[in-house]
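User: Some background: our group keeps a shared notebook of sequences we're curious about, and every so often someone picks one and asks for a predicted structure to add to the entry. Today it's my turn. The entry only has the sequence so far, pasted here. Could you supply the structure so I can complete it?
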Amino acid sequence: LATLHDRPWTAIRMAKTARKQGMKEVALLSLNKLTDCAMDVSDAFAKLREQILIYRDSDNQNELRGGLNLVNTTNLSFFDAAQKSELFRLKGTFLNSLRGRRKANQAYCQSVQICPTFSKAWLSWGALCSTLAEIEIKTNSFSEAQKSSSAGKKPAQYLAQAMGCYLQAIQCGSREWDRINLPKCLWMLSWDGNNPGLLCQTLEARGADLPAFVWLPWVPQLLTSLGRIEARAVKSILKGLVMQYPQAIYYSLRAFYLERRDAERAHRGKPPSAHAQPTTAVMHAEELMSILRKSHPLLWSSLETVLEELIVRFRPSLEE
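Assistant: Of course. Here's the predicted structure to add to the notebook entry:
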């Protein structure tokens, strides 16, 4: 039993290391040693996956087509749902490299249909949609005014689909790599133009369903968004953070509220349009502060006491 697992595992691991170091011949040689070796289904899938990845990392069109043929000729009846989903994901990757983006989109769709909780498939599908949006943007150099027009809707649709895929990958996966596209999702919101559109709706529909802790590194960006068109979508996310992680968000929220309130008071003598956004941000921040104070009164009182102590004790003296 030990030989059944140890020999394939060692050869596959060596092939993976060689592939990552760019030594494709060594990787293939290591995998070819397993032709006469008995393996279970998981080891057979790992061997097949490594063979496919060796072709995927190539820039040669013929090798890419060879890898695609290897995927297409594989008998899927022995594999489970996650393994089948991975093979369809790799098929989409090959098709995308061969510029068959429409077929790649279909392959990614099949992948997530087979296993809806497979986060890698969602990430790859989101990357394809993001690439399609970038192609549209480069082809038609959009100005800020054109983003809200009918011409700018196609990139926005691709970006909304990419955002949905990225957020779904976070919901399905537990790896740090699944959350790497969160700041990109926040950047995508700028493509809604001057009014909330498809991207804001996507964030509002899917963002609040994510675990609240994934947003903790991006609290400053979320607070800044309270003064823009995505305020409604971001506000629901911040409410979840206030309820679950009040101590982590309190000081940033308090500083943002006081800063924007002072900015509003400084602009009172100017026309309303000059301070419309700060007023909106102050209203949302004040509401969040009120929610935090009512839901966690003891913690709020303790944090205020600590903050007052810090202000008094760290205030520089006249000699300093």
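Suggested note for the entry: The chain has a mean pLDDT of 86. The two ends are 74 Å apart (CA to CA).
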